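Customer escalation, tier 2.

The customer says the design service returned an amino acid string that "doesn't look like it belongs to this structure." They asked us to rerun it and document both sides in this ticket. The original structure tokens are below, unchanged.
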């Protein structure tokens, strides 16, 4: 890559029902395109990516970096996003991949003056996937390992005051003293937040080889659990 070549980047979000793609050039976001990721996510993603690139006179071979939301999230949607990114990387050998954890994209949408926060995602079967964050130098950074368990149990031991955000708030009761909940409009990751998180990770050189690009699951898929001896 020559010094005067502009970096073309694409972000992929398929971990939630509101999927989408974003396109950027160097440090600027050019455009985004949303689609329904609840069904036929692969078709919608490929079509949307083609439309987004074509509108700027670009082709897949022009992409330098791809930022993929890798979960936790929808099992099927997350796999689709990762698979498409891996396929792009195999097609375009110079393409560099960034794995963006979904909580990292969601926390970018937090609007609060509080210094403690957490992203709450639903993991099914009454469990929540909770990622803690703390503000450092004005930026929220992950402050501990994600926790899988009952949301109320985790919240009872969490530092207060605390700000909570994430689609899991729609499935788990996280209300309590000194607990502030984000507006529902900010619960889900967006192509823009995935792109913004990806730019930050790319700037830090946090790239991953495409064959190491894997989905993050809140818990093992049911098919995997069943194959290990669970009766069905």
């Amino acid at each position: 890559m020559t010094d005067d070549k502009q970096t073309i980047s694409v972000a992929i979000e398929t971990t939630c029902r509101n999927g989408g793609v974003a396109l950027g050039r160097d440090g600027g976001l050019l455009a985004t395109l949303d689609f329904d990721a609840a069904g036929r996510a692969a078709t919608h993603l490929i079509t949307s990516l083609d439309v987004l690139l074509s509108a700027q006179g670009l082709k897949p071979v022009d992409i330098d970096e791809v930022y993929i939301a890798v979960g936790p999230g929808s099992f099927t949607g997350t796999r689709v996003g990762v698979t498409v990114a891996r396929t792009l990387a195999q097609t375009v050998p110079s393409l560099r991949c960034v794995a963006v954890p979904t909580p990292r994209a969601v926390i970018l949408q937090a609007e609060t003056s509080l210094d403690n926060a957490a992203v709450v995602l639903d993991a099914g079967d009454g469990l929540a996937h909770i990622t803690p964050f703390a503000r450092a130098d004005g930026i929220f950074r992950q402050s501990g390992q994600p926790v899988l368990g009952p949301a109320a149990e985790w919240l009872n031991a969490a530092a207060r005051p605390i700000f909570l955000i994430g689609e899991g708030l729609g499935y788990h009761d996280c209300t309590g003293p000194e607990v502030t909940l984000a507006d529902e409009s900010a619960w889900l990751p967006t192509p823009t937040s995935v792109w913004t998180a990806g730019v930050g990770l790319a700037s830090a050189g946090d790239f991953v080889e495409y064959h190491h690009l894997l989905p993050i699951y809140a818990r093992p898929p049911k098919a995997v659990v069943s194959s290990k001896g669970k009766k069905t």
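Tier 2 assessment: The sequence is consistent with the input. Residues 225-232 have pLDDT under 50 and may be disordered. The radius of gyration is 18 Å. Sent an explanation to the customer and offered a walkthrough call.
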